[in-house]
Design goal:
two-stranded antiparallel sheet, globular, 2 helices, alpha+beta
Amino acid sequence: MSREPGNRNWGFKKRAGAAAGAIALLALAVTLFVWAAGQWVSSPPAPRLDPELGVPIGEPLRSAAVDTPLVMDGVVEAAWEQAPVLIAPLHYGLHGDEPAGGIELRSLHDNENVYFLARWPAATSGSEPEVWRNLLTVHWRLVDQGQVSGTSTGSEGLACTVGCHTATADGQGRLVGIRAETIPPGLDDDMPSGGGWLAGEWLLEWSRPRVSASPYDQNLTDLAQNYRFFVKLFLGLDDRPDPASDVHELRLER
């Protein structure tokens, strides 16, 4: 009796088993490749860091160009709809990582001025009605540090690397003013501003000239330059530092 048919069947089964194993290995390899590709795609790139402060540089604040000057009275004009919105995350302390909410920022500019709008939630308007307090500061990282004048300041050398826009308010939610400040004190002037606290929200708007009157301040004239800044809110908490943002960049668009 011949055993060839059985042998042929056994050989067929052997080849079929080898093919199935190869297919299973191929499927496993494809699965691992897809998983690895997904892991690679989902890993975000490392953030850029401000070389002086050592904190991340976040999304830019893009300032749209307008032809008509805005009035800084705390009333949000229709022109602000042209301004891209930046929601800047806040954390307790400039180098902290505990989330502290966020602040909405917008900017517009024309040939003479740059305009800013900021708003953020707050459960109350502040403290005692007649007590003035610092509310918000925008710290500008100066591109050119300038030189200290010995005549005006009694010292020589580089100026401070920061120029500030500081908002002051009273305890009833009324904006007292927003000042431009530099160190040395070559500039300490009120800027056109408006706004205040209403129904659980602070809303401020202000403007500054693109060319500053102070040699220690930052001019905002170069469309190719990114102007770095960060924002700080003054809460006066006992157990935490005041909230601050990462560093962001103002970009003047055409």
